[in-house]
Amino acid sequence: MGTEHSDVYKQIAALARQMNERLPDTSVRAFDELLTNAVKHIPGAQYAGITIVARREEIATPAATHEHARTIDSIQEKLRQGPCFAAATEHDSYFISDLQTETRWPDFRAEALAQTKIRSIASFELFTTRDTVGALNLYSDNANAFDQDARDLGYIFAAHAAIVWAAVRRGEQFRSALASRDIIGQAKGMIMERFSVNAIEAFDMLRTLSQNENIRLAEVARQIVEADHPPNERLQ
């Protein structure tokens, strides 16, 4: 491996360390940061995007460096075919050297050529969770933009990105759990005061309401708190 490529690998490793040490507040910010760095450090990449496919095969693009990436995902959502969709759902990586001569996904090929200037695509499986799968995608207006070195870098970048994304998601879930605990505590206190019951009885009342209404306990608590103190009133 040449010195130039070795330096790029070192830069990506350093970026991964930096992102782990200073995790963004949200997954969207994490995606924005990693895509900016992907375009900067992976040879041939002009644009980058994240494709997420939910359990019901609904496709979303939570982050992209250019509108072309969103257009490509929109086409794939409509047609249920394409390299990014395949990378996410088939847990593999897919490469298009030249969209003009690509024989796979013919309907996708025709619409992508008609709606964008993209000629090369590199799609890497990014993560898999119980509810969603995802892919990191690189794009170029030039044919044969991603050589083996660029693909190797893409694999490494996707692996680091998946680790960072998982850490950010855990942080989001933790903050959500804290918020749910706080709102449940508020609702429980209100019930205790209003009905002269103890903490266990108040929680049982909340749980019964949740089961009867078939909605989450935190949502029941939120409705109780907001019914007593509407959001606009709390801001006054």
Report on this model:
There is one protein chain. A five-stranded antiparallel beta sheet has the order 2-1-5-4-3, with helices on both faces. It has two domains: 1-167, 2-Layer Sandwich (Beta-Lactamase); 172-226, Arc Repressor Mutant, subunit A (Orthogonal Bundle). It has 236 residues and is an alpha+beta fold. It has helices at residues 3-21, 27-41, 67-79, 83-89, 106-115, 148-195, 199-213, 217-228, 231-235; strands at residues 47-54, 59-64, 94-96, 120-128, 132-140. It has nine helices and five strands, in the order H-H-E-E-H-H-E-H-E-E-H-H-H-H. 61% of the residues lie in helices and 15% in strands. Residues 231-236 have low confidence and may be disordered.
Write the layout of secondary structure elements.
Blueprint (H helix, E strand, L loop, with lengths): L2 H19 L5 H15 L5 E8 L4 E6 L2 H13 L3 H7 L4 E3 L9 H10 L4 E9 L3 E9 L7 H48 L3 H15 L3 H12 L2 H5 L1
Antiparallel strand pairs: 1-2, 1-5, 3-4, 4-5
Helix pairs in contact: 1-6, 2-6, 3-5, 6-7, 6-8, 7-8
